[in-house]
Design brief:
alpha/beta, Arc Repressor Mutant, subunit A, about 50% helix
Length: about 450
């Protein structure tokens, strides 16, 4: 394909995918605008696979055509001159979105400054950068109001918890990443206790993994478990409830399920399922309280059990239909992940299924992507897009670095998963491609 023809093809993909997204929004109401001050009904839809598929192509094609046509120096500096996280940390920590709820027509930075004790001219610069990104609206000079995007930063939204975790704990790891790569004592290690974030935190005398660090801080641990509910909207994780046939099964084990970010919605959508939540005792204390409040009928009907489990040392409850692990394996290097899966294998009955719900890093090799598409059902990008959708799938690669910074762990390619699960005695049956993440379905080998 000639160079100009590739650009024309990318323009066609942009136009087609944008129109697909518009049509999906119109099924739920009007199309949103950048300054809209309320959520759109599609924002909280359980199944967003079609929308995420359209956006994946749209983002990938837009970024690829910009990187092609812009001068290289322009694009290279844009890669590093990114200060959004520092600004988001300020407005999230100071509850700016919650304050602006009381001022739908906007609030001048001078007045907002008095409420949060941040110098007004600096505050204006922070908010203007974010508004340029589409987060907040500058309705008049130095007067800012909420919009659909800034509402995500409300205290009541679980996404805010995960955002704060990224701009604080993950940022600590990112800040010393280079040093950990060059430190001869740890550069070649995948020990979770010396992951970059812990390398930074350990300077204050803290030891252990990031989970050990959180366990010593009740507020931080509770915020982390709440943040896992945010993955439902960030990753579109709840699409698994409609895409996978849970109605055919009667028992589900949520391994490392925390407070029930997955199993709470499961209990409401598939009331035929008896759920077991496995996690450490401190997580289950929080879980019992949340279930009593949000799904008392499931508790009263004995449709949920809370069972302590250290998945490195213990075998889950045996012989159940489905064993579900969402964003569990990616928290651990290969050795620890192998222990989890080997113990899980011991619990499986002849008809049991294991569902690993994680990001799957797509191949940039068009040849390998074609193999995975034809043999395993993994969707590859249309040409001339990069085979992995380019920036359309960037979060999986950003998340890969997030896992490295926090845990010395990683997101995995499909080949990585196959190597890991084969050793544990699992056989891949199907890949459920949910646009952003995938669900890998296994049986006992």
């Amino acid at each position: 394909m000639a160079n100009k023809a590739k650009l024309e093809a990318l323009l066609t993909l942009i136009n087609t995918s944008a129109r697909d997204a518009i049509a999906l929004y119109e099924q739920y109401g009007d199309v949103p605008t950048i300054d809209q001050a309320e959520p759109h009904p599609l924002d909280n839809a359980v199944d967003q696979v079609a929308l995420k598929s359209a956006i994946r192509t749209l983002e990938g094609a837009c970024a690829q055509i910009c990187a092609t046509l812009a001068p290289p120096a322009h694009t290279a500096v844009n890669l590093v001159q990114v200060y959004d996280p520092a600004c988001v940390r300020v407005v999230a920590r100071e509850h700016v979105s919650d304050i602006l709820l009381k001022y739908p027509k906007g609030l001048h930075v001078n007045e907002l400054s008095k409420k949060i004790n941040v110098e007004p001219k600096k505050l204006a610069r922070i908010l203007r950068l974010l508004a340029t990104r589409g987060c907040y609206s500058e309705v008049e000079t130095d007067v800012f109001a909420n919009n659909r995007l800034s509402l995500i930063l409300l205290d009541e939204n679980p996404v805010k918890n995960i955002i704060l975790f990224h701009v604080e704990a993950t940022a600590k790891g990112a800040s010393v990443f280079y040093e950990t790569l060059k430190d001869p004592k740890i550069a070649y290690s995948y020990d979770p206790t010396i992951a970059p974030a812990m390398y930074a935190i350990n300077k204050n005398g803290t030891e252990g993994t990031i989970f050990d660090w959180m366990a010593r801080n009740d507020g931080l641990r509770e915020s982390y478990h709440v943040s896992m509910r945010a993955l439902n909207s960030i990753m579109g994780s709840l699409a698994v409830l409609t895409q996978f046939p849970f109605e055919k099964y009667s028992t589900v084990v949520d391994v490392g399920g925390g407070i029930g970010a997955f199993s709470l919605p499961l209990s409401k959508m598939h009331k035929n399922v008896k759920i077991t939540i496995h996690d450490l005792p401190e997580a289950l204390v929080q879980a019992r309280g949340i279930w009593a409040k949000e799904s008392p009928e499931a508790v009263a009907e004995n449709r949920v059990d809370f069972v302590d489990l250290n998945f490195f040392e213990q075998v889950p409850v045996k012989g159940k239909d489905i064993y579900y692990l969402r964003n569990i394996i990616h928290d651990w290097p290969d050795h620890e992940s192998g222990l989890i899966l080997s113990n899980l294998r011991k619990a499986l009955g002849p008809n049991s299924r294991v569902l690993i719900h994680d990001y799957v890093l797509r191949q940039l090799s068009r040849k390998q992507a074609a193999v995975e598409a034809s043999e395993l059902g993994v969707v590859s990008a249309p040409e001339p897009l990069l085979a992995n959708f380019g920036v359309g799938s960037i979060r999986s690669y950003q998340q890969d670095l997030n896992m490295l910074f926090l845990h010395n762990a990683k997101e995995r390619t499909l080949q990585d998963f196959l190597a890991l699960t084969t050793v544990a005695g699992l056989k891949l049956e199907k890949v459920w491609d949910l646009a952003e993440a995938c669900v890998l379905e296994y049986s006992a080998a």
